[in-house]
Design brief:
heterodimer; A: alpha+beta; Ubiquitin-like (UB roll); DNA polymerase, domain 1; 5-stranded mixed sheet; about 15% strand; globular; B: alpha+beta; Aldehyde Oxidoreductase, domain 3; Aldehyde Oxidoreductase, domain 4; 3 domains; 7-stranded mixed sheet; 19 helices; about 25% strand; binds FE2/S2 (inorganic) cluster
Chain lengths: ~160, ~750
């Protein structure tokens, strides 16, 4: 497989890499950059566990090729917040029971960032609709919806 | 005690690392020199393997080894029925059975190599459903025949009970197989070391049962294996003892003597099970005019697929557990577990309870209608109560079932809403309810249901808990942390729970049968109290006072008598070590509940406590499309003292949605034994959009055998959903669906049949 030179920004850091043209973005992030917070749940674009932000928009990294990311800016869950400086959504997911096993959580967080960017004050129906590209088997979505609503109510939606 | 920690809603102790994406699941683990494995599966439901040619695969650059059934130990493994080898040996018994494995430098090379393996099969006739398996001259899946287990239970006088009944109703219900659908497809990393020991990091609900299974399947001493639980991305029963890919991964590591990672794809994960056990249940019940149940007669045919696993235990639950929810005298069950040439089925959240709950609660509503009674009243009339001894000898130490019924009927405004609904128009609404019970613990595992907690108090007064009960997201570690922090008077942030590790953790059975809160919780309580008394003894010596006068709060030991007598906890913990004959604080406590094994007649108090739940909901049925939507739902769980209400509500909501999925959306499609919808686009689990707000409430009974009054939550909550929906559908359109799932096709067909009763 021929290699492609790739230059992009991942979680605020410039990354230069050589990738085969068929390298999935999810593989590139997890296997080449060791950013294993991005999960794989289906690799067919259904579960959303692999969601990341590309130039601020949510993208399923199992459906994207690494080579398409040249010159783009990617944010994974690792770039969202750290201990002591958690993103408000991360904080609310913790407090409202937005996660149990945690496997879907990175994907939901990314989808939620995108959702609140588009609609800073969503009602429950809009939140649920905005999450329709992500699956969670543990929470019944209740804690996730509660977390996103309370983040928006606290004015962190924008 | 300044602040009570138990009973407070708090984030799970693993939440912080999880929201940062920093929890390490098995598929995230990378080791130096690690290789990757892929599995080749049988395309046939039943076939003899005539020959396997692996030479082309082995010749592919990057391939390290190709193994087949010829290479694996002859010893068979299984729960009670030892039926499986690491890979199929000579014969395949279901589409998807693992026949070969490749280990290579990358997943892609391993995948390419699979295509180069040539297998010659001789296809054999297959039995693909219960009826075929039971038919005259059916091909046996195993030499012993297709009925792998049979249960007969009888108490009282069932015939006399029916004779005394004013009404008798009989119906056949069928329940389908559900995919656990945990979001993390199974993953395992296994590695041998220079001494030949094998270490396995995997996604499991029980490291010790995993080690047992590995020892058997790999035919090596138990102590030559170490199993460490990686973060588990959901379990739902499938990862108790039946999981196969971890066994294969471990075997491959011994073959290549290097670390091997086996990540299943979603298709792999679906093909290898472990779906729930589908059943056909014939239920006959008699009642007097006032609604008292006089007799109950059950016949069950259940399908375990190619290998029995835990299915016989699951069926035992279906056959008898719900009898204990009501004050019954005359009950009879006959149940058979049947092999077919399909994927192995087994343990699933609720463990056989969902199947019977569907039949029983559908039946109760139907009979309530026959009697002109409200189904809530019918349940109340028959409900077992605190202090009762059930028909099968279960001692009901606490029962919040009546309160659960009251809560959900009030919350949904049952009576008013029921009266309001009219059966006309395109969109019709209806209400339904169901009531259920579950165990908290179960001695049936092998005459021990104990749990041991080891507690280390460090010299800075912070603690480490060693246990092998598994947290797979349900919150076990948070529960232990809260009990420990409260008893020791330290902040929860000063408590660490170690991941289960068979080399370092005390022996535990793991997370199954909703046993962890009640059993490990009690062990934690004992260990924490022991540590506290050691701390207070040491403090009394140091401060020159009586231990009885001392307490610990906010990390400080102080005297209740003399405000000037106090010492920070770290000082006392150091003093416990640094003195003649001193040592670090290390305590161990085992709690084995005072329960019994069932006797041969299946009688006896198997669990220290029993949990109850009820659900009431409203559905909307679109009579043009046949679509059913749950529009409002309330679920109440009697889990005893809720140690962490946040996690209890989370379990209730998650379980209720899993039940909605089973009832309305999820359906395994098989053709010729082959899974036709082996992906998450075609096997449709509920999304956030598909479900309403999941309201839940808690009935806090005080369980005398529970730690601080607590018992199990979570499994109970999955039980009422299906019949509550079926009952609501009946209320909405007058059509009773007895065959799950409730699909638009079935609704439309039933509506059409109802319009033309003579057609
Ligand atoms: S892994 Fe990308 S959507 Fe499921
Ligand atoms: S928290 Fe487990 S899948 Fe969402």
């Amino acid at each position: 497989m021929s290699g492609h030179k790739l230059s992009l920004v991942v979680n605020g850091e410039r990354v230069e890499a050589d990738v085969p043209s068929n390298r999935l973005l999810s593989e590139f992030l997890r296997d080449d950059l060791a950013l294993t917070g991005t999960k794989r749940g289906c690799e067919t674009g259904v579960c959303g566990a692999c969601s990341v932000l590309v130039d601020g928009d949510v993208v399923k990294s199992c459906l994207s090729l690494a080579v398409q990311m040249n010159g783009r800016e990617i944010t994974t869950v690792e770039g969202l917040g750290r201990v002591g400086a958690l993103h408000p959504l991360q904080q609310q997911f913790m407090e409202k029971g937005g996660l149990q096993c945690g496997y879907c959580t990175p994907g939901f967080l990314m989808a939620a960032v995108d959702l609140l960017k588009r609609n800073p004050n969503p009602d429950d129906a809009e939140i649920r609709e905005g999450l329709s590209g992500n699956l969670c088997r543990c929470t019944g979505y209740q804690g996730i919806v509660d977390a996103i609503r309370s983040t928006a109510e606290a004015g962190h939606g924008a | 005690m300044t602040v009570s920690v138990v009973g407070q809603p708090m984030p799970q102790v693993s939440a912080q690392e999880k929201v940062q994406g920093r929890a390490v699941y098995a598929g995230d683990i990378k080791m130096a020199g690690m290789l990757h494995a892929k599995l080749l599966r049988s395309p046939h439901a039943h076939a003899r393997i005539l020959s396997i040619d692996t030479s082309a695969a082995e010749a592919l650059p990057g391939v390290k080894v190709v193994v087949t059934g010829d290479d694996v130990p002859r010893r068979r493994w299984g729960v009670h029925h030892k039926q499986q080898n690491v890979l199929a040996c000579g014969l395949v018994r279901f589409v998807g059975e693992e026949v070969a494995a490749v280990v290579a430098t990358t997943e892609a090379v391993a995948q390419d190599a699979l295509e180069l393996i040539r297998i010659e099969y001789e296809e054999l006739p297959a039995v693909l459903d219960i009826d075929a398996a039971l038919s005259e001259g059916a091909v046996p899946v195993h030499p012993e025949g297709n009925v792998v287990d049979e249960i007969n239970i009888a108490r009282g006088d069932v015939e006399a009970g029916f004779a005394a009944a004013d009404i008798v109703h009989e119906e056949v219900y069928t329940t389908h197989s559900q995919y656990p659908g945990y979001m993390e497809p199974m993953a395992t990393v296994a590695a041998t070391d220079g001494n030949g020991r094998l270490t396995v990091w995997t996604s499991t609900q029980s490291v010790f049962l995993a080690r047992q299974r590995l020892a058997e399947a790999l035919d090596r001493p138990i102590s030559s294996i170490r199993v460490i639980q990686a973060t588990v991305g959901g379990g739902f029963g499938a990862k108790i003892v039946e999981e196969r890919s971890s066994v294969i991964a471990a075997f491959l590591a011994t073959k290549v003597d290097r670390p091997v990672r086996l990540n299943l794809s979603r298709l792999d994960d679906i093909q290898s099970g472990c779906f729930s056990v589908p059943m056909r249940i014939r239920l006959k019940m008699g009642m007097t005019r006032d609604g008292t149940i006089t007799a109950k007669d059950v016949t069950i045919e259940a399908e375990c697929g190619a290998y029995a696993g835990l299915s016989p235990e699951v069926m035992l639950v279906t056959a008898m557990r719900s009898d204990n929810m009501q004050r019954l005298e005359n009950v009879r069950s006959h149940a058979r577990m049947i092999h077919t040439h399909t994927m192995p089925r087994g343990a699933f959240r609720g463990f056989g309870g969902t199947q019977m709950s569907f039949a029983l609660n559908s039946h109760m509503s139907t009979m309530a209608d026959m009697l002109g009674m409200d189904p809530f009243d019918l349940h109340r009339r028959n409900a077992i109560r605190t202090g009762d001894l059930s028909v099968h000898g279960w001692e009901i130490g606490s029962c919040g079932l009546p309160e659960c019924l009251d809560q959900v009927s009030t919350a949904l405004d049952w009576t008013a809403r029921r009266a309001r609904n009219t059966r006309c128009g395109v969109l019709r609404r209806g209400v339904g309810m169901a009531a259920v019970m579950h165990v908290s613990g179960n001695r049936t595992m092998g005459n021990w249901d104990g749990s041991t907690v080891v507690l280390k108090v460090n010299e800075d007064g912070r603690v480490v808990i060693l246990t092998a009960e598994s947290d797979m997201g349900q919150g076990a570690n948070t529960m232990l942390t809260q009990i420990c922090a409260q008893e020791l008077g330290i902040p929860v942030s000063h408590v660490t729970v170690q991941a289960p590790d068979t080399d370092n953790s005390p022996y535990c059975l793991g997370s199954l049968a909703s046993r962890v809160t009640i059993n490990a919780g009690n062990a934690m309580l004992g260990a924490a109290r022991q540590a506290r008394s050691q701390i207070l003894e040491a403090a009394a010596q140091k401060l020159g006072c009586e231990a009885a006068d001392l307490t610990i709060a906010d990390g400080v030991v102080h005297s209740g008598k003399n405000p000037n007598l106090f010492a920070p906890l770290p000082e006392i913990c150091r003093y416990h070590i640094f003195r003649h004959g001193g040592e670090g604080i290390l305590v161990r406590h085992t709690h084995d509940p005072k329960t019994v094994m069932m006797n041969k007649e299946h009688y006896g108090n198997i669990a220290p406590a029993y949990s109850f739940a009820a659900q009431a909901l409203e559905v909307e049925v679109d009579t043009e499309t046949g679509q059913v939507r749950v529009v409002e739902t309330y679920l109440s769980d009697d889990c005893g003292k809720a140690i962490n209400p946040l996690t209890v509500h989370g379990q209730s909501a998650g379980a209720a949605v899993q039940a909605v999925g089973w009832t309305l959306y999820e359906e395994l499609q098989m053709e010729g034994g082959r899974v036709m919808n082996g992906n998450l686009a075609d096997y449709t689990m509920p999304t956030a959009e598909a479900v309403p707000t999941m309201h839940s409430d808690i009935v806090e009974t005080d369980e005398p055998n529970g730690p601080l009054g607590a018992k199990g939550a979570s499994e109970t909550a999955i039980l009422p959903g299906a019949p509550a929906i079926a009952n609501a559908v009946y209320d909405a359109i007058g059509v009773r669906i007895t065959d799950l799932p409730i699909t638009p096709e079935k609704i439309l067909a039933a509506l059409a049949a109802k319009e033309q009763p003579h057609a």
